UniProtKB/TrEMBL annotation:
<protein>
    <recommendedName>
        <fullName>Histidine acid phosphatase</fullName>
    </recommendedName>
</protein>
<dbReference type="GO" id="GO:0016791">
    <property type="term" value="F:phosphatase activity"/>
</dbReference>
<dbReference type="InterPro" id="IPR050645">
    <property type="entry name" value="Histidine_acid_phosphatase"/>
</dbReference>
<keyword id="KW-0732">Signal</keyword>
<dbReference type="InterPro" id="IPR029033">
    <property type="entry name" value="His_PPase_superfam"/>
</dbReference>
<feature type="signal peptide">
    <location>
        <begin position="1"/>
        <end position="18"/>
    </location>
</feature>
Length: 467
């Protein structure tokens, strides 16, 4: 049995434990369902556990860390190889930075409720509006509480959190994330301005408080002393080009087709026991919980990433989810993400439908640099896993594990010096040049990067959505 598994995957457990941080992002057999079922793979060199406030420092910098993905950090920041070895002289002229929000409580509460309280008293979600000029409001914040006379609490969850909401660990990691961005792109490379001048910097989020609150944390890290407020751009949520804002019927049609293929069914087939064990433990037998691994993954990640334990059966507290079961859920989630954004037979159309308009917006930022029509040097966009995944898919990432909390893509644009001055690009995923089917995107003409992404921008999204 063991040798059969080795034969299928070509990866022995001892090799898994010896993975480099970068290798933990790229399991070579992620597209095979044996990646899901091979218990010896564990977390494939990553972690899904963190104390409530601090990062988990067990793994070396750069490893896949679901709770707080690595980001560019000055100590490890690699200059493009061509610049480092002196074969070209170049300066960075633009940074387009995308990130998933920081860590949070789960979206999905188990059908029978949660067997432990969630505590969010150590983070204050501010919510107030002020006039553009005149007297400012009194700053109020959300204080979630549980009223024990509310009979529905028993079958839901006790405590002081909303689901989802940013947690203190996520906010604090956001500060660090911003400090590290400043250290690389401000202090070291001199790109980000010392104060957030409106002509040079631009920020965007989705309508979700998770992304807005992440922005407040990260940008405080970038500009610790800035006394004012900053605009965080958003499109109207009903037509937003991120977070599946605009409605698009063909998107659902294509998704159903993707989730009906033989490969998809095989991944359900090999996980039938796991799904049935978890389903009966929690009454999670509806299609919402059974048809994909989204909900179980989310529920377990939300707990483990914020210092809590895996859930137990309400009626029999001796029956709890094991770490082995959770790891299999996480591997199945990784398989699904790779399938959605890399290997399904309709992947190009699916990326166009979900993220194509947004990718077009990014390309228009690049075009403005080429045309010399912008003074911007730094754009930072706070989005969701469902936005990061398709962008990585469009880049042709060789393997795509679930883009975890605070996962980030840095599109850097460099201009070479001298008479033959030209624009080059590189793309970092969580601090390292991304590995793709087009090679490592460490240094390529900006036009080549545009050519990679362009096929994912639909020429007519309205017709495509109605197709
Ligand atoms: C997985 O990817 C490899 C290399 O890209 C390919 O050779 C193989 O056929 C794929 N396997 C499946 C099951 O799709
Ligand atoms: C840190 O991660 C390691 C590896 O996944 C795990 O064994 C450990 O329990 C984690 N520590 C905490 C405090 O969550
Ligand atoms: C420097 O790095 C670039 C990009 O990897 C490579 O093409 C070039 O040959 C290298 N030059 C030297 C002198 O090592
Ligand atoms: C909720 O949790 C608090 C603190 O742990 C506890 O005192 C209270 O009894 C719990 N209420 C319910 C309804 O479980
Ligand atoms: C799983 O595989 C078996 C045997 O090949 C097949 O009979 C069954 O229909 C499959 N189930 C699913 C859910 O694909």
């Amino acid at each position: 049995m063991v040798s059969l598994i080795f034969g299928l995957l070509g990866v022995a457990p001892s090799i898994v434990s010896a993975l480099t941080p970068l290798q933990s992002f790229y399991p070579p057999n992620l597209n095979d369902t044996s990646y899901i079922t091979d218990l010896s793979l564990g977390t494939y060199g990553g972690t899904y556990q963190s104390p409530t406030r601090e990062p988990n420092t067990t793994l070396p910098y750069g490893s896949y860390d679901y709770c707080q993905m690595p980001h560019p950090r000055v100590r490890e920041y690699p200059l493009p190889e061509a610049v480092r070895n002196g074969s070209v002289k170049a300066n960075i002229v633009y940074l387009e930075y995308l990130q998933r929000h920081q860590r949070r409580t789960p979206y999905n509460i188990l059908p029978g409720g949660e067997n432990q309280p969630y505590d969010c008293d150590d983070i204050l979600p501010y919510l107030y509006a002020g006039p553009a000029s005149g007297e400012g409001p009194l700053p109020v914040y959300a204080q979630t509480y549980t009223d024990i006379t509310n009979p529905f609490v028993l079958g839901y969850v006790n405590g002081s959190c909303q689901f989802p909401q940013l947690t203190i660990g996520g906010l604090l990691d956001g500060y660090q994330h911003g400090k590290d961005i400043w250290a690389v792109y401000g202090a070291k490379l001199g790109l980000i301005p010392i104060i957030p001048e409106k002509e040079k910097v631009w920020f965007r989020s989705t309508e979700s408080p998770l992304t807005q609150q992440s922005a407040g944390g990260v940008l405080r890290g970038v500009w610790p002393a800035w006394p004012g407020a900053l605009p965080l751009h958003q499109q109207t949520s009903a037509v937003d080009t991120v977070n599946e804002g605009f409605s698009c019927s063909n998107r659902g049609t294509v998704l159903s087709a993707i989730e009906s293929t033989a490969e998809w069914n095989e991944h359900l087939n090999v996980t039938a026991n796991l799904r049935s064990e978890l389903g009966s433990m929690f009454g999670a037998t509806s299609s919402d919980w059974q048809d994909t691994f989204d909900h179980f993954s989310d529920n377990f990640q939300g707990r483990l990433c914020n210092g809590y334990k895996l859930p137990c059966d309400f009626s029999d507290t001796s029956k709890c989810v094991s770490m082995e079961q959770a790891n299999e859920v996480f591997r199945a989630g990784d398989w699904e993400w790779n399938y959605y954004w890399r290997t399904n037979p309709k992947v190009q159309e699916y990326i166009q439908l979900v993220q194509g308009v947004f990718i077009g917006e990014i390309l228009s930022h690049f075009q403005a640099i080429i045309d010399g029509k912008t003074s911007l040097v730094y754009s930072h966009i706070f989005v969701h896993d469902g936005d990061i995944g398709p962008v990585l898919g469009a880049l042709g990432i060789t393997q795509l594990r679930w883009p975890a909390m605070a996962s980030n893509i840095a599109f850097e644009i460099w201009r070479t010096e001298g008479r033959e001055s030209a624009l080059f690009a590189r793309v970092l995923y969580c601090g390292q040049p991304v590995e793709t089917i087009h090679g490592t995107l460490d240094w390529l003409p900006l036009e080549s990067l545009i050519a990679i992404l362009k096929p994912y921008v639909p020429t007519d999204i309205v017709s495509l959505c109605n197709a």
